[in-house]
Structures are given as C-alpha cells and as structure tokens.
C-alpha cells in the first residue's frame, strides 16, 4: 500500500522529544494542510538559533514541511533549498510553493530532485553556498555516510 499521508504510517516510533517552541508552532500554523499531512519525518530538525538571512539546505526534504518552516525563519533575505529523490514528494512541495510565497509575503524556496549521497549531481547547488544543512531522520538511510 502506498502512503498518501503521515496517517498511513504503520508506527509512530519516531516522535518529538519535547514540546515545540512557540515560533515553530506558529510557523506550522502557516503551512498548507497537505504539506503537513505528507510529513513523514521523525522530528523537526531546525536549529534553535538565529536563521534570518541564512541559506539552508534540506536533504531529503519530502513534501517540503521543514523547507517551508525554515523559509519563514530565514525570512525574505534568506534562502531554503530542498533536495529529495522522490518525484511525487517534490511535486507536492512544488504545487504548494505559490501558496506559501503568498502566505509568507516572499518566495525564497527551491526544490530539486537528487540523492543526498551524490549532491554534486544536482548541478544547481554550489559548493559552500549554505549556512546550514538540515535533514530529518534520513541520513541513517544513506548508503555512503
């Protein structure tokens, strides 16, 4: 059976260690409903420090939940790039790009298909162009870490 939303998962073994901060809770409230529904991650993997103006790379971004949360945190002068190997997940992320840009008042997100193990194959990514790299419980599945 194909998973269509996070409700289709067989277990909730991955769970938050504690309560989300108020600024993260507020950021989640601004997300499109299906972006949250297709969130398959373990925890939010965003740093708890100042991100305004930063450039963030989200490895295996899925439908873009963390990308769109980070988008709000980096603001209009920042940039968030999501890379995922799954076309269907990226399609969902791209479909909601305009909604989030309008909701936030700026468009600072990009999505690309690729593998975390071979980011050099994603030609649009420049080396050393990110202030932060985030990933949500997926690095352990990479074949070369």
Give descriptors for this structure:
28% helix, 5 helices, 145 residues, globular, 14% strand, alpha/beta, four-stranded parallel sheet
Summed up, what is this model?
The chain is built from 5 helices and 4 strands; from the N terminus they run ααβαβααββ. The protein is of the alpha/beta class and 145 residues long.
User: Structural class, from secondary structure content?
Assistant: alpha/beta
Oligomer status: single chain
Largest sheet: 4 strands, parallel
| Rg measurement, Å | 14 Å
Spans of at least 5 consecutive residues with low confidence: 9-13
Helix content: 25-40%
Roughly what fraction of the amino acids lie in strands?
Answer: 5-15%
Question: What is the succession of H and E elements?
Answer: HHEHEHHEE
Helix run count: 5
How would you describe this protein?
With 145 residues, the protein is of the alpha/beta class. Helices cover 28% and strands 14% of the residues. The protein is built from five helices and four strands. The chain has helices at residues 22-29, 33-37, 65-74, 87-95, 97-104; strands spanning 55-59, 79-84, 109-113, 132-135. Strands 3-2-1-4 form a four-stranded parallel β-sheet, with helices on one face. Helix 3 links the parallel strand 1 (55-59) and strand 2 (79-84). The longest helix has 10 residues, at 65-74. It is globular and about 35 Å long. The termini are far apart. The model is unreliable at 9-13 (pLDDT under 50).
Topology:
Elements: H1 22-29, H2 33-37, E1 55-59, H3 65-74, E2 79-84, H4 87-95, H5 97-104, E3 109-113, E4 132-135
Parallel strand pairs: 1-2, 1-4, 2-3
């Amino acid at each position: 059976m194909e998973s269509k939303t996070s409700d289709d998962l067989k277990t909730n073994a991955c769970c938050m260690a504690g309560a989300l901060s108020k600024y993260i809770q507020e950021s989640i409230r601004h997300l499109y409903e299906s972006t949250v529904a297709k969130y398959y991650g373990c925890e939010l993997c965003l740093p708890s420090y100042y991100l305004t103006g930063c450039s963030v790379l989200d490895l295996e971004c899925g439908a873009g939940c963390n990308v769109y949360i980070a988008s709000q945190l980096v603001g209009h002068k920042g940039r968030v790039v999501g890379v995922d190997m799954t076309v269907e997940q990226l399609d969902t992320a791209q479909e909601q790009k305009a909604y989030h840009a309008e909701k936030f008042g700026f468009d600072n997100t990009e999505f690309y298909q690729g593998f975390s193990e071979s980011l050099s194959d994603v030609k649009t990514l420049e080396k050393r162009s990110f202030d932060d790299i985030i990933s949500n419980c997926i690095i352990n599945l990479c074949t070369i870490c």
